[in-house]
Amino acid sequence: MKRKLYLVRHGESEWNKLQRIQGHKNIPLSEMGRYQASKLAERLKSEEIDLIYSSDLKRAFETAKIVGDELGIEVTPLEAFREIRMGVWEGLSIEELIKSYPEEHLKWMNEPHNFCLEGAETLLDLQKRSIKAVNEIFEANPNKNIMIVSHSATIKAIILGILNMDLSYYSKMSLSNVSLSVIEFRDYNNVLKLLNDTCHLRED
Q1: What residue ranges do the domains of the chain occupy?
Q2: What's this model's pTM, rounded to 2 decimal places?
Q3: Which of 10, 34, 179, 184 could be bridged to 196 by S-S, CB 3.0 to 4.6 A?
Q4: Is the Cβ–Cβ distance between 156 and 170 less than 8 Å?
Q5: What dotted CATH number matches 3-201?
């Protein structure tokens, strides 16, 4: 059996609606976010998921809990899967950020792998802590299919790390709220089977 890693971005949060930078701020899901998580839970009932881990921030843990309750799996929250810490940007709207930090914003948009800001993590910092946790989980749970509910930057850093791709590719990826990405671990390589899939949100 090929092991799979299911990577889920949390549902819409209250600050996603307001377009505010969240980082480590502990923002809950919006009503829409809870609905999105319920649709994902329905979809995942047909998958063979053994264990669920989550960022310990509310928006991710709430998403994971809704899925876990549907699948009958308890969720383990871990700080290692938090979003990237964004320092003085946290709480700012996109408009405020562009106005107050125009050069830094351009760097983040164009060269996020070279981005450095007061009080913030680098992408490499983020990747090191999240990949370390992923490796520890798989070492402790061989031959298990694992789901991790986390955040956009964290999931992208994990994907690039597992696929041995340079962090400079970070800006080439986009992840929607409550999107599903799947990595399959094969004998000779790791394969990205699904990226940013949101078919569970389509209305019948």
Answers
A1: 3-201
A2: 0.96
A3: 179
A4: yes
A5: 3.40.50.1240
